[in-house]
Amino acid sequence: MHGSESGGEPGPTSRSGVDHEFLALERELAVFLRRARANSGEMAREVHPDLEASAYGILVRMEAAGRQRPTDLAAYFGVGRATMSRQLHALEELGLVSRESDPADGRVSLVRLTEEGLARFRRVRDARRGRYADKLADWDRAEVAELARLLHHFNARAED
Q: What is the pLDDT of residues 53-84, one digit of tens each?
């Protein structure tokens, strides 16, 4: 930890008042996000050739959280209901997602991965994990765990 969270002073700044740690963070996140977008597109096409890159993240969330309301998915990703509805409709058209009535409220639908969607997603996810393991083979397991912990912490703060 650094700065006010650890009780210490902020890091060094340039004469213009720029904090070098945050500049480095911004630079590395920009590279990471650019590569992540490209990887999502590749993985989406591996799941189905007609799948949009942005839809891969929806599959990740649905596999982790199970069936859920489209409005909950929209809130999780910070997108509008219309955007989520369009993306879910495309996933339904590809046979990767299905809708069912919510037993608690028949006026509401729940979405879930179909068996085909789940099988395709898991095949691609497992291959991706293998690529991560290859790229990080020379890292200590504790370093991998720390990276995961820090990214989780960052993502949790980003939701605020």
A: 889 999 999 999 999 999 999 999 999 999 99
Nearest to 25 by CA among 132, 160, 157, 125: 157
Look up the pTM and report it.
0.73
- CA–CA gap between residue 58 and residue 91 (Å, rounded): 9
Q: Mention every residue, 6+ apart, whose C-beta is less than 8 A from residue 50.
A: 94
**What pLDDT was estimated at residue 38?**
85
- The per-residue DSSP string of 56-70 comes to HHHHHHHHHH-SB-H
Task: For residue 96, give the DSSP letter.
Answer: S
CA quadruple 45, 39, 118, 101: dihedral positive or negative?
A: negative
Please report where in the chains the tokens 């910070």 appear, as a residue: 78
∠ at Cα 113 (107, 115), nearest 5°? Answer: 125
